[in-house]
Design a protein that fits this description.
This protein has 167 residues and is an alpha+beta fold. It has a single domain, classed as Cytidine Deaminase, domain 2 (3-Layer(aba) Sandwich), CATH 3.40.140. Strands 1, 2, 3, 4, 5, 6 and 7 form a seven-stranded mixed beta sheet that branches. Strand 2 and strand 3 form a beta hairpin. The longest helix has 14 residues. It is globular.
């Protein structure tokens, strides 16, 4: 007979901003950049445009947008487009914050856009690589935004280098 089951609970802290105007100045600036970048999304199949803006420790801001492909797995999310560009262009600079927004093509209203699991995993890799947290901000279900102090808060059961036994 096995051991009895035990239940555990995971909790995280996050910031909730009722409107975009409540965002900290740095996040609001990233929001404006992400909105300007929204039209760079290539979404002929889903008609769902996603944009990500990243602020680096050197003050640079880089963006990414979703890029679809008729062979769906060959496309790329906005978050990974941006983070991979940041890593390739500025490999020695830390990522401080990532802000993600989305809308349906042809509409101006933003819709909820929590990063997918693959994007969270990619962002977590960069967070662990730089040994410092990356702030993550995205649209929540109502009019406001969610702010996490660390990407790892979005992926409590993470797979990282320690899982491979390399640390």
């Amino acid at each position: 007979m096995g051991l009895p089951m035990t239940r555990h609970q995971i909790s995280i802290s996050y910031s909730s901003y009722a409107t975009e105007n409540e965002l900290p100045a740095g996040s609001l600036s990233l929001l404006k950049t992400a909105l300007e970048n929204m039209n760079n999304a290539y979404a002929p199949y889903s008609h769902f445009q996603v944009s990500a803006a990243i602020r680096l420790s050197n003050g640079e801001v880089v963006t990414g947008s979703n890029q679809e492909n008729a062979a769906y797995p060959s496309g790329m999310c906005a978050e990974r487009s941006a983070i991979y560009y940041a890593g390739a262009r500025f490999p020695h600079d830390k990522i401080e914050e990532i802000l993600v927004v989305a809308r349906r093509e042809g509409e101006s209203e933003l819709v909820p856009a929590c990063p997918c699991g693959s994007c969270r995993q990619a962002m977590l890799e960069y967070e662990e690589r730089q040994s410092s947290p990356i702030r993550l901000v995205f649209k929540q279900n109502d009019a406001g935004f969610i702010g996490l102090d660390s990407v790892s808060d979005s992926l409590p059961f993470k797979f990282g280098a320690e899982s491979l036994g390399t640390i």
